[in-house]
Amino acid sequence: MRIVRDWQFVEQQDRGASAAIGNFDGIHRGHQTVIDIARGEAARRGAPLGVMTFEPHPRQYFAPNGPAFRLMNAEARAHRLEWLGVDTLYELSFNDTLSALTPQTFAAKVIAEGLGLAHVVIGEDFHFGKGRAGNAADLVAFGEEMGFGVTVVPLIHDTGEEISSTAIRHALTEGRPQDAARMLGHWHRIDGKVIRGDQRGRLLGYPTANMSISGLHPPRFGVYVVKVDVLTGPYKGEYGGAASVGVRPTFGEKRPNLESYIFDFTGDIYDEHLSVALIDYLRPEEKFDSVEALIAQMDADCARAQEVLAEL
Known about the structure:
- The chain has 312 residues and is of the alpha/beta class.
- It has ten helices and 16 strands.
- Helix 7 packs antiparallel against helix 8 (177-184).
- The relative contact order is 0.13.
- The model has no long low-confidence stretch (mean pLDDT 93).
């Protein structure tokens, strides 16, 4: 998959695509429907399949000190889009220049001239341009005027409820990763590099791969059943495990992170990139009176996690 970040300097091979447009945070089932319709249009036209999105997320750009809300970082989003067969990811830099464009100028300068898109697919709640002033109907009109096709996709629902990134965040906040997965169409994943911690897990007999969750919407703190994909290095592959999301209250630490214990694994994966899927929620985070009590609970957590994974 090719990644294009500057709409003002685009190579010829990256022009003419049929592209889905949106923020695609989580790439849930609604997003996948938009991408699949763009895929069908790409096949009909013999064009590349593209996705246009923005980095940083516009909400993050306008409120950089607001609470973390993203379901995916840019790395995880790119991995998922590549897995879905996207040919070109237009990951446009969201900055002062782009945010100041009026809806008509955005359609003309970015979609028609800059990227030269042949067709775009959007959700019916799509807004664009300065102040989010443009809507789906506006883009249809601009497409007719400027020579690119537009398909507007209705929102999809699950058991009567709209599928949205907001609903998925609520499920994760409440410790319901399976409900989040149903709306996503895949397990919720946290991607990133393994960082060096204090190696306390190794001393407890449970060495963990530590990852930052900075900038991401935090799932409910506690212990999860996980699948761990090692994406880089000599140990690439999928493994089962148990993971803790939280602040490690037994040891008085306050910075939230993700610590994954990988079953039957002894390799060195510091600085490698992992994708950790949250399969099931086992229990809340708690503070233990002794290290021995913590280890006993970790033994029980891992046994239960292995039972859950065996049933998948």
